[in-house]
Design brief:
By secondary structure, this protein is mainly alpha-helical. It has a domain of 140 residues. It is built from twelve helices and no strands. The protein is globular and about 70 Å long. It is found in: Membrane. Belongs to the PER33/POM33 family.
């Protein structure tokens, strides 16, 4: 009997009070959860403008993503210092990359494709933390939401690959935006630096992997006997040009020289 009472005492509390205590203890995590929800909400409001101005929703989605990135960056690098080491660490952080992403497209006319990566990233992380919040309410609460979260987590690899593909496709798209007068001349150059940082990301290899997959697919298409010589030469030239632009990856500490 004493053992049972001890187990009940040690078991974590569930319910609204536990949910409230968790929110108080994890303020920044809950704030991130909220800003990610805002990114998704304003993306929906831009695509399906039920009320309000869709253009305002577009920029609000970018602002919400920028807020998410800034908060996450604060969690990862809380102590700011004006040193070369700090700058190097800053440039390697994925949250810094997407803070820059938001800033780039705040000065570009609304384009739906630019919201796709930040919407999908927000959805993955929002779903993951929603599961944590649901656990504070009880294991059997909101089973429908749990099922939806499970589906998102099951498809997380495919979602991350789609995000990486979107990042890559946006590079030539920024050039098109200049030609139609919807972006400034510096946009492709700044976006190239963003894409370079994504390629060198230490925590997220998907952009690098998708680049490799696209190269293999393009090389295979160029090598097909049925592909016209002119098309093959164009494809190989494009691949060579992109390879020249690709940044060199930093070797991990301790790697063989």
């Amino acid at each position: 009997m004493a053992d049972n009472e001890s187990e009940r005492t040690q078991a974590p509390q569930r319910g609204f009070e536990a949910f409230k205590q968790h929110c108080i203890a994890k303020k920044l995590d809950v704030l991130l959860w909220t800003t990610r929800f805002c990114t998704m909400f304003f993306t929906f409001m831009y695509i399906i403008p039920i009320f309000g101005n869709p253009y305002n929703s577009y920029y609000k989605a970018l602002f919400a993503n920028g807020a998410t990135s800034a908060i996450r960056l604060h969690q990862r690098l809380p102590a700011v210092s004006f040193t070369r080491e700090y700058l190097t660490s800053l440039l390697l952080e994925d949250s810094f990359h997407y803070l820059l992403y938001s800033l780039i497209f705040l000065y570009v006319s609304p384009v739906t494709l630019t919201l796709l990566p930040i919407f999908l990233f927000s959805m993955i992380h929002f779903a993951s933390y929603s599961l944590t919040l649901l656990d504070t309410l009880g294991q059997n609460s909101w089973w429908g939401a749990r099922l939806l979260i499970s589906l998102i987590e099951f498809q997380s690899r495919n979602i991350l690959r789609l995000i990486a593909f979107s990042e890559i496709i946006l590079m030539p798209f920024t050039v098109i935006l200049i030609l139609v007068g919807r972006a400034g001349l510096l946009t492709p150059f700044i976006y190239y630096h963003f894409l370079s940082m994504r390629y060198k990301s230490m925590r997220n290899p998907y952009t690098r992997n998708v680049f490799h997959e696209l190269r293999v697919t393009t090389d295979a298409l160029a090598a097909k006997p049925g592909t016209p010589t002119f098309i093959s030469n164009v494809l190989r030239s494009i691949v060579d040009f992109i390879v020249k632009l690709s940044p060199a990856r930093q070797q991990p500490a301790g790697a063989a020289q």
